[in-house]
Amino acid sequence: MSSSAVKSDGMPLMTPEELASSKPQPMKTLTMMGAATAIGTSIAFGLSFFTTSPATERAISVAAEYNLAPLFLSGVVLAKAVAWVNFYPLAYKSGVMKRKSGNLRANMHVYKVLSSENEDESKAAKVVLCEDGNEGKYNRANRSLTHMTETIAGQVITTLLAGVVYPTATLVCTIGWATGRIMHQCGYAEKGYGSHGTGFALSTLASEVVSGLVLVAAAKTAMATE
User: Is residue 115, in this structure, part of any structural domain at all?
Assistant: First the structure.
């Protein structure tokens, strides 16, 4: 990052337009989440069609007997709430660092150095993660770990619910999710910001498909209950 692109505190210099955009846009976030859900559910419907078995039909019958469609939907709602909470900070992040800020974007928090001689927070030196050498790789590997723990709750509950009805399809998705998470961590740690993108896309797609399988199970259960 060139010196002309940073402020006196070492952080990226943001334009007035970039700062103005650094606020949550609920409708944009909902649109993105809705699109991801639509794609995942479409793939899930195809998987459910090809992996349906007599055991699947029995599971749907039992779920219908106990009126479990609301439980399936609860799992999806939980997963989407977790996704929302993870997306929300990104709006503010755009007012702190740029998309081209590289490994700086691995920082989940930005700290300042307290000094009695410098009461102006905008000029106080900021504390961020080391980017170079093994320290940088260690920090980014842990950032990937934290990202996984941030989203794991929704993944676990939808995997359990989907697996009851569509175990084979859920296994395929779980393998895809696990592969994506490993790619995310290795790419982030070894090559830096941007190299984790493929793993992120794969794990996110797998998560959306599992969520879609739960929606399909909920719909079939509801229809069987009537």
Answer: no
